[in-house]
Specification:
Elements: E1 15-19, H1 24-35, E2 39-44, E3 55-59, H2 65-72, E4 80-83, H3 98-126, E5 129-134, H4 146-166, E6 171-178, H5 207-217, E7 229-232
Parallel strand pairs: 1-2, 1-4, 2-3, 4-5, 5-6, 6-7
Length: 240
Amino acid sequence: MLSEAGLPVHPATPCAVVTGSSSGIGRAIAGHLLGIGWRVHGLDLAPPTLEHANFESSTLDLSDLSDISRIASHLPPAQALVHAAGVLRVGTLAQYSPEDADLMWRLHVAAASALAEAIVPGMAERGNGRVVLIGSRVSQGMAGRGQYAATKAALGALARSWASEVAPSGVTVNMVSPAATQTSMLADPARATSAPRMPHIGRLIQPDEIASLVAFLLSPGAAAITGQDIAICGGASLPR
């Protein structure tokens, strides 16, 4: 059996499709999975930044459903789908931007739906699969981030709904919701007026910490965990 790149692939090696694999949380997840023996097919607008014999990638605009449709038929059969690609645009009610709101909805919610439609039915037919959506602690609401929070809250509703649909088929669907995480998103000029809130532990969450949790949710040991929104927040959800 050969991969799309012509490399030999052991048929028993599980494959994960990971969005946002070129940077930040998505890259950390892809790298962690490669390190524990998964094959990874990365999806990102940016060029790939990982080099590994079991890594392949497709360059596409995940906010464009037609681009996802173009790629979907060429994706390998996957045992896992991790949707980590995201963007943050901030603004109060008075600063509301329809363009920013639409971008976040398409990238966070519409892309997740399109990819799940393309990948999850195959998992259900094979009787095994894992889906993890990367949410945010902000989904509970935060001043100046209403539209971002709304899209992440919608992901949680999708996760619970899909989990209910596919649980009898051996497929789990969960969401991981980090607090402020140390990625390049913190340096994005678009959020210059909205500083991250430091978790109780006194430091930002590290992408590798999120990757470790995701890897567990993809493992056989997590087969009974589904429909959950799991916070990795460094105590940010604790009362002040």
